[in-house]
Design a protein that fits this description.
alpha+beta; Trna Endonuclease, Chain: A, domain 1; six-stranded mixed β-sheet; two-stranded antiparallel sheet; 8 strands; about 25% helix; globular
Length: about 140
Amino acid sequence: MGGKNSVSPITITPLFKGLTHMVAQSNYSRGRDTEYLARDLLVLHGYQVVRSAGSHTPIDLVAWQDGGHPLLIQVKRNSNHHGRTLLVEREYASVIRSLREMSRPIKADVELWVWAPLKGWHFYSVLTDGISEVLDHGM
Protein backbone atom coordinates (compact mmCIF):
# COMPACT_ATOMS: atom_id res chain seq x y z
CA MET A 1 0.00 0.00 0.00
CA GLY A 2 1.16 3.50 -0.35
CA GLY A 3 2.62 5.52 -3.11
CA LYS A 4 3.73 9.07 -2.78
CA ASN A 5 0.17 10.36 -2.54
CA SER A 6 -1.47 7.48 -0.72
CA VAL A 7 -3.81 8.23 2.14
CA SER A 8 -3.72 6.36 5.42
CA PRO A 9 -6.78 5.05 7.16
CA ILE A 10 -8.70 7.62 9.15
CA THR A 11 -6.81 8.83 12.21
CA ILE A 12 -8.03 10.84 15.17
CA THR A 13 -6.16 14.12 15.48
CA PRO A 14 -6.39 16.49 18.47
CA LEU A 15 -8.07 19.74 17.48
CA PHE A 16 -8.19 21.46 20.87
CA LYS A 17 -7.70 20.05 24.36
CA GLY A 18 -10.43 17.51 24.85
CA LEU A 19 -11.76 17.75 21.29
CA THR A 20 -10.76 15.67 18.31
CA HIS A 21 -11.70 15.45 14.67
CA MET A 22 -11.14 12.68 12.16
CA VAL A 23 -8.72 13.32 9.32
CA ALA A 24 -7.32 11.14 6.55
CA GLN A 25 -3.64 12.06 6.40
CA SER A 26 -1.35 11.76 3.40
CA ASN A 27 2.24 10.53 3.73
CA TYR A 28 3.38 14.14 3.34
CA SER A 29 1.09 15.31 6.17
CA ARG A 30 2.24 12.57 8.53
CA GLY A 31 5.89 13.34 7.72
CA ARG A 32 5.40 17.08 8.17
CA ASP A 33 3.58 16.58 11.47
CA THR A 34 6.43 14.36 12.71
CA GLU A 35 8.96 17.03 11.70
CA TYR A 36 6.92 19.57 13.68
CA LEU A 37 7.06 17.28 16.74
CA ALA A 38 10.84 17.08 16.41
CA ARG A 39 11.13 20.83 15.88
CA ASP A 40 9.00 21.56 18.94
CA LEU A 41 11.06 19.17 21.07
CA LEU A 42 14.27 20.89 19.99
CA VAL A 43 12.87 24.36 20.69
CA LEU A 44 11.71 23.16 24.12
CA HIS A 45 15.34 22.21 24.83
CA GLY A 46 16.72 25.60 23.81
CA TYR A 47 17.62 25.02 20.15
CA GLN A 48 17.10 27.33 17.23
CA VAL A 49 15.59 25.28 14.39
CA VAL A 50 15.14 25.63 10.65
CA ARG A 51 12.90 23.16 8.81
CA SER A 52 13.68 22.32 5.20
CA ALA A 53 10.05 22.27 4.08
CA GLY A 54 9.16 20.11 1.10
CA SER A 55 12.76 19.52 0.21
CA HIS A 56 14.10 16.33 -1.24
CA THR A 57 17.40 16.65 0.58
CA PRO A 58 18.68 14.25 3.24
CA ILE A 59 18.10 16.86 5.98
CA ASP A 60 14.70 17.83 7.40
CA LEU A 61 15.86 20.01 10.30
CA VAL A 62 18.94 22.05 11.15
CA ALA A 63 19.22 22.88 14.84
CA TRP A 64 21.82 24.68 16.95
CA GLN A 65 22.43 26.12 20.39
CA ASP A 66 24.89 28.86 21.28
CA GLY A 67 28.36 27.36 21.40
CA GLY A 68 27.28 23.90 20.28
CA HIS A 69 27.71 21.88 17.13
CA PRO A 70 24.83 22.14 14.67
CA LEU A 71 22.56 19.11 14.36
CA LEU A 72 21.56 17.98 10.88
CA ILE A 73 18.50 15.77 11.34
CA GLN A 74 16.51 13.42 9.13
CA VAL A 75 13.11 12.67 10.73
CA LYS A 76 11.17 9.46 10.13
CA ARG A 77 7.91 8.09 11.46
CA ASN A 78 7.51 4.34 11.87
CA SER A 79 4.57 2.73 13.64
CA ASN A 80 6.39 -0.61 13.76
CA HIS A 81 9.70 0.70 15.09
CA HIS A 82 11.35 -1.65 17.59
CA GLY A 83 14.44 0.41 18.41
CA ARG A 84 16.96 -2.20 17.30
CA THR A 85 19.92 -0.49 15.67
CA LEU A 86 20.61 -3.31 13.20
CA LEU A 87 17.00 -3.25 11.96
CA VAL A 88 17.13 0.55 11.65
CA GLU A 89 20.31 0.27 9.55
CA ARG A 90 18.56 -2.17 7.22
CA GLU A 91 15.24 -0.34 6.99
CA TYR A 92 16.77 3.09 6.39
CA ALA A 93 19.91 2.01 4.49
CA SER A 94 19.40 4.42 1.59
CA VAL A 95 18.60 7.34 3.93
CA ILE A 96 21.68 6.61 6.06
CA ARG A 97 23.83 6.32 2.92
CA SER A 98 22.56 9.74 1.73
CA LEU A 99 23.30 11.28 5.12
CA ARG A 100 26.84 9.89 5.08
CA GLU A 101 27.56 11.03 1.52
CA MET A 102 26.28 14.60 1.73
CA SER A 103 28.69 17.46 2.18
CA ARG A 104 28.43 19.12 5.57
CA PRO A 105 30.19 21.43 7.98
CA ILE A 106 33.08 19.64 9.67
CA LYS A 107 31.71 19.87 13.21
CA ALA A 108 28.05 19.18 12.44
CA ASP A 109 26.44 16.14 14.04
CA VAL A 110 24.20 14.14 11.71
CA GLU A 111 21.29 12.27 13.25
CA LEU A 112 18.36 10.10 12.25
CA TRP A 113 15.33 10.56 14.51
CA VAL A 114 12.60 7.93 14.39
CA TRP A 115 9.19 8.60 15.93
CA ALA A 116 7.13 5.56 16.91
CA PRO A 117 3.68 6.80 17.99
CA LEU A 118 3.31 4.22 20.77
CA LYS A 119 6.97 4.23 21.87
CA GLY A 120 8.21 7.78 21.39
CA TRP A 121 11.49 9.00 19.92
CA HIS A 122 14.59 6.98 19.10
CA PHE A 123 17.71 8.97 18.18
CA TYR A 124 20.62 7.66 16.10
CA SER A 125 23.95 9.28 15.37
CA VAL A 126 25.01 8.69 11.76
CA LEU A 127 28.67 7.73 11.71
CA THR A 128 31.02 6.99 8.82
CA ASP A 129 30.80 3.24 9.45
CA GLY A 130 27.25 2.80 10.75
CA ILE A 131 24.81 4.28 13.22
CA SER A 132 24.76 4.39 16.99
CA GLU A 133 21.68 4.89 19.15
CA VAL A 134 21.95 8.03 21.25
CA LEU A 135 20.67 7.04 24.68
CA ASP A 136 21.62 10.18 26.62
CA HIS A 137 20.21 12.79 24.26
CA GLY A 138 18.38 14.59 27.04
CA MET A 139 15.24 14.95 24.93
